[in-house]
Amino acid sequence: ERINGSIASSRKIRGGNYVQIATVDAETNEPRCRTVVFRGFLPPQTDRAEESCVMKMITDLRSRKVGEASGHPDQAAELVWWFAKSSEQYRVRGRLQFVGGGSFANDDDEFLARMRKEQWENLSDMAREQFYWKDPGIEYSQQAEVPEGGRGEDGTILPIPDNFLLMLLHPTYVDYLRLTDNFRQVDKFDDDDWTEKRVNPKRCIRFDYRMEYDYGEGIDEDDSHDYLELQDIIVGK
User: Fold this and answer.
1) CB 59 within 8 A of CB 165
2) What is the rounded CA–CA span in Å between residue 108 and residue 211?
3) In whole angstroms, what is the distance from residue 195 CA to residue 188 CA?
């Protein structure tokens, strides 16, 4: 319920649905982080089912995050979502699940297959085109011609390419921080139930930058002043 309120307050902010998700490279044991788009929560499978907390994103089968998560025994990942308008941060740890065209164990699940299809059809034309690009991460070469908008000659959306994946994060741990009153809470999922506990935040420095201009009589833009405010506050790391 809390995160729904955070989402609602930032709905009109450009980039407000961008999140960072981190995995671990099994070969080097180094973290890897990237920005992806949050595309809503997985809906309940039936009308009587409880609201889901599973987070939807998409990715390409050829991207490194797929191998990094799949190579981890728990398919573990951590997502960070910062809401600038409300000064809230969510760090969500859990298990990544990929739904594709036959590469993964649950690809034959009718509900998940339908969710994948809906996500493909809901993409913008520009986003669909990216799944016809050449393999990511290799040396650059001129892109081959791709179907415009991921559509056929008659304008209809093409069938889902095998490399298009629905990416689901099943949360098991949520670290919530609200800077307005330094409130921090940790929620854990264990034995099919969530527990919550308020914890102490940690200390660091937040930088608030404010530009103030005075364009009164006799004052022009070149005489404006910049102010940098530093405020020590309690936040979580």
Assistant:
1) yes
2) 55
3) 5
Q: Is the pTM of this model over 0.85?
A: no
Among 185, 153, 177, 19, residue whose Cα is nearest residue 88: 177
Q: Two tokens at 75?
A: 């398919």
Do the strands 193-198 and 18-25 form a parallel or antiparallel pair, or are they unpaired?
unpaired
* Structure confidence at residue 203 (pLDDT): 66
| CB contact burial 114-123 (16+ within 10 A = b; e otherwise) | ebbeebbeeb
| Residue whose pair of structure tokens reads 């760090």 in the numeric block | 91
User: Would you state the structure tokens that stand for residue 234, as one six-digit string?
Assistant: 């309690």
What's the half-sphere exposure (Cβ side, CA atoms, 13 Å) at 26?
13
CA nearest to 56, candidates 160, 164, 170, 150: 170
Could you say which DSSP state residue 41 is in?
B
pLDDT (average), residues 137-141 = 89
Q: Per-residue confidence at 215, pLDDT binned at 50, 70, 90?
A: very low
pLDDT in tens, 198-210: 999 976 545 454 4
What is the H or E stretch that residue 203 is in? strand 202-212
Residue whose structure tokens are 């989402």? 7
Report the range of poorest mean pLDDT among 31-40, 186-195, 223-232: 223-232
Task: For residues 37 and 117, give the distance between their C-alpha atoms in angstroms, rounded to a whole number.
Answer: 17
